[in-house]
Design goal:
Blueprint lengths: L4 H21 L18 H5 L5 H26 L7 H19 L1 H11 L8 H9 L6 E2 L2 E2 L9 H19 L1 H15 L4 H17 L13 H17 L3 H9 L1 H21 L7 H29 L5 H28 L6 H23 L27
Antiparallel strand pairs: 1-2
Helix pairs in contact: 1-3, 1-13, 1-14, 1-15, 3-10, 4-7, 5-6, 5-14, 9-10, 9-13, 11-13, 12-13, 14-15
Keywords: Acyltransferase, Membrane, Transferase, Transmembrane, Transmembrane helix
Protein name: Acyltransferase family protein
InterPro entries: Acyl_transf_3_dom (IPR002656), Glucan_succinyl_AcylTrfase (IPR050623)
Amino acid sequence: MQRRHDLDWVRTCAFALLVLYHVGMYYVTWEWHVDSPRASPALEPFMMLSSPWRLGLLFLVSGVATAFLLGKARAAAARDDGRVRFLGPRSWRLLVPLAFGMLVIVPPQSYFEVVDKLPGGYHDGYLAFWGRYLAADDSFCRGDDCLILPTWNHLWFVAYLWVYTVALWALVRFAPRALERVGTRLAAALSTPAGIVLWPAAWFALARMSLVGVFESTHALVDDWYNHVQYLALFLLGFAIARADGVWDAMVRQRRVALALWLASWVAIVAYFYHFAQPEPPQGLRLAMRAAWGLNQWCAIVAILGFARRWSPGDSPALRYLSQAIFPVYILHQTIIILLAVGLRPLALPPLLEGPLLVVATFALCFAVYELVRRIPLARPLFGLAGRRAAPAGAPAPAA
C-alpha cells in the first residue's frame, strides 16, 4: 500500500480552510455562536465559494483513509493471529477526543453564546455555567429556540465519521461480496470522462432538490437526513474508489472542466441569493439553483482532487508534521477563535485588521497547544493522537 501524499495535502488544507471559514463566520450576517459588532454581508460570496463542498471533501478523503487503514489492519492480522483489529482502535481515536471535546473544549463556545445572545445576558460566570452545561440544563432559551447542552458544536464531524465507520464496518463484515461488486461497478461508471462528473453531480443535485426543503441541516445526527444522504454517500464513495486508479485518472483528465463548472455554478448561486435576498423566488428557479448547488459540490471536489493528484509536491517533513498536527488543531480551533474574538472586542479593531489577526493568532495558539500535547503521553489520546510521542519531523511516514 503506497501512501497517497496528494490526499494528505488535501486533508491538511481542507482542515486549515475550516479555520478561515469559522473566522469568516464571525463577520457575516449568518447565525453563529458569537457575532462581530461589525458583521456584514461583504464576505458571504467568498464563504459560499466553499460552503457546498468543504465538509463533503473531508468525508470522501476520510473514506479513502478508512480503506487504507482497514487494509493495514488486515495485513497485520495476516502476519499475527488472524484477528482484524480495526473498529476498536478507530473508535478509541475518534470517541475519546469527541468526549473530551464535548466536556472541556466546547463549553466555552456555548458560554459566550449565552453571554452574547441570551435575553438580558448571563452574569453568573463560567464555572457556574459549566456546571449547568454538564447537567444538561435546557433553560437557556430565546423564545422557542433553546440551547441543547451538552453539545458537540464543530466536533459533529467526528461523531458522524465514527457512525459512518461503524456502518461501513458492518457492511465489510456481513456483506463483503455485495460491497465489492457495488464498488467495482461504481468505479467502472466513474472512470469515463462523462461519468466522473455526471453521475455524482446528479446524485447531489437530486438530494438537494428533494430533501433540503424537508430536512434542516442540524448536525444532531438523529434528524439530519439531508446531510446523511450527502456525507455518508461521499464517505462510502471514498472507500469504494480508494484503489480505483481509473477514477483518479478520470479526475485528473476532467479537472479543468470541473473547475469551470464549479466556478460557474458559484457565480450563479451568489447571484441567486443576492437577487432573492428578500422576495420569494419562483419554484422552478429555486429547484434549478438547488441542482446548481449539487453540481457545485461535486465539481469542486473533482477539481481539487484532480489538481492535487496532478500537482502534489509529494512527501516532505512539513507534510508529516502537519498530518499529525491537523486533527488537534481542528479540535481546538473554534474555541480559540471565539475566545480571541471576544477578547479583541474592546480594541474595536477594523475587520480588515482584526480578521487576519484572528487567523494568525488562532493557528499560532493551536500549534502551540499541539506542541505541548504531543509531548504529554496522557494528553495525546484526548486530541486524537496515538498514545506515544510523535516521531521526529524527519522520520519516515507510516504506511497508512
